[in-house]
Amino acid sequence: MTDTPEHRWHDMGGQSAGPIPMEGHDFALWEKRVDALMVLCGAKGLFTVDGLRRALEDMGEDAFEKYSYYDRWIAATNQNLIEAGVYSLEELGQRMEDIAKRGATYGEAQA
Amino acid sequence: MTPSGTKVRVKAMTPPGHIRAPFYLRGKTGEIERVLGPFRNPEQLAYGLPASQKILYRVRFTMAELWGDAAENPADTLDAEIYDHWLEEA
Amino acid sequence: MPHDHHDHLSPSGHPYRQDNDAPLTYFQRMEIAVRELLIEKGHLTQAEIATQIDRMDARSPANGAAVVARAWTDPDFKARLMENAGDATRDMGFDIGPLHLVAVENTADTHNMIVCTLCSCYPRNLLGLPPDWYKTRAYRSRAVREPRAVLREFGLDLPETTRIRVHDSTADMRYIVLPARPVDTDGMDEAALAKLVTRDSMIGTGLPLAPENT
């Protein structure tokens, strides 16, 4: 592990690490939606994949260890959309509050 | 444009920010395996800036060059894509 | 809970992860909010999102296996694949978008393997989404320094006389390994050969199946 000003945490090549974890999982609907949002917004020119990667890198090593892959990708997508002025933090915050009131599960929280 | 077969070294600089030249290759010498052509510079794209075109190369390194005595097999190789502005003559 | 999948395996043999029935997470709320705002502001439609999910679901290692089997049976196609794998694959009819694809060929004395140490770049427009292990710290860190030890963890113990070539997908190219055609497959047609080609054999962490194992 490394995270210094000279050598950033995401630049992992050649570091020592444990055995490769071989277990996998099938993608959940919400993960597929994150993937689709990221691809479509990129295709429409709202941001670039490099902008997404920059946001992921800036989240830091702690986020990489703590959150899932698509947790981090929706956060990076949101970061780029905020920067592009697509919606405001106020709009996002209010909508996330509204969604929490719809139900306790992902399925119930759909509009 | 630098032709295939040319010996090049990856610059050993360490600016902050979004960079696609991996740390483990910086300061290492390899050989241009092929010229991939011009691509937009990710160091500008990452910040939403208008991006200039940079020539992208595939550079081949020996494991001996990268890891010295720690290499599993010194003649095995590593190829990576490196943009022109990260390469210098070796 | 009405649909508790957690103790079951999916058709692909992977466990289901918490999905619609598990407690709503912060990042799931963010996904719903981002999706709704993008639709309301006219940037995306529901239909575009559904179509994109279908398009990604349709991409799988079977696409790459068809490309490999074609290269094993058609020397002209193989020449085009080695010259420009993206165009050769598009000519075969695969919807890979603007993917810049490079094919690297395994031979009797050369074995290729693919990694992305900086993030997790993968030829997803051909092979579908990457396996979870491809995105792990362990694979990203170790593949460039100790590829032989990594390959042994995948059950592949290559002799010192085999030259290993590791490819770090650091920029705009994506890579597919063209594995060597297994022995004793002379009589097999393209469709039968494609069944021997595994996902891992196209990443370089495996070999194609032997014909008796299919």
UniProtKB/TrEMBL annotation, chain B:
Nitrile hydratase beta subunit domain sequence ranges: 5-88
Coiled-coil boundaries: none
InterPro entries associated with the record: CN_hydtase_beta_dom_C (IPR024690), Elect_transpt_acc-like_dom_sf (IPR008990)
SUPFAM superfamilies for this protein: Electron transport accessory proteins
One Pfam family, short name: NHase_beta_C
Descriptive protein name: Nitrile hydratase
Annotated source species: Roseovarius atlanticus
TrEMBL record, chain C:
One annotated GO molecular function: nitrile hydratase activity
InterPro entries recorded: CN_Hdrase_a/SCN_Hdrase_g_sf, CN_Hdrtase_a/SCN_Hdrlase_g, Nitrile_hydratase_asu
Keyword Metal-binding recorded: yes
The organism's place on the tree of life at top rank: Bacteria
Positions of region (Disordered): 1-21
Record key words, sorted: Metal-binding
Segments forming domain Nitrile hydratase alpha/Thiocyanate hydrolase gamma: 28-205
Pfam families to which the protein is assigned, alphabetical: NHase_alpha (PF02979)
Name of the protein: Nitrile hydratase
